Amino acid sequence: MIERMAEIGRDHGLGTLIAPVRPTLKHRYPLTPIDRYVEWRRPDGRHFDPWLRTHERLGAKIVKVAPTSTVTTGSLAEWEEWTEMTFPDSGAYVVPGALVPVEIDRERDQGVYIEPNVWMVHSAPQSAEP
Predict the structure, then answer these.
(1) Is 21 helix (H, G, I), strand (E, B) or coil?
(2) Is 46 exposed, middle or buried (CB count within 10 Å of its CB: 0-12, 13-18, 19+)?
(3) Of 27, 71, 121, 122, whose CB has the highest number of CB atoms within 10 Å?
């Protein structure tokens, strides 16, 4: 899929693919800051996260962490329905599948989830010109 996206870009004269990447295992470590998570490496030196590792294997480099990639705001009732959890107090809650905790404010009847992602750049191979 990544290679095909790069191919489509090249077909349109674009030499670089910039991919917003959602790390697939980050939800298991929601209390670890994304900046630290992207630095984790396996013993073989490759990225700990399989999706980051896939991009890396295809030649991509991390250029930036986007701390505010997606913002999801909802009422307490919505968050309780979405997560199948109860939020008895205001504060940060770890919820299934979330990369970071959800911030619940009972007084405002609001929950806010601010999801980070990682920008990775795939540079096109340089073509040999005669």
Answers:
(1) strand
(2) middle
(3) 122
Angle at 49 between CA 100 and CA 95, to 5 degrees: 25
Candidates 106, 103, 104, 95; CA nearest to 68 is: 103
Task: Give the global pTM.
Answer: 0.83
Cα dihedral sign, 62-64-70-71: positive
Q: Structural domain of residue 36, as residue ranges?
A: 2-123
Tell me the two tokens of residue 71.
């913002």
Please state, in angstroms and rounded to a whole number, the distance separating the CA atoms of residues 80 and 87.
7
**pLDDT tens column, 94-122:** 999 999 999 999 999 999 999 999 999 98
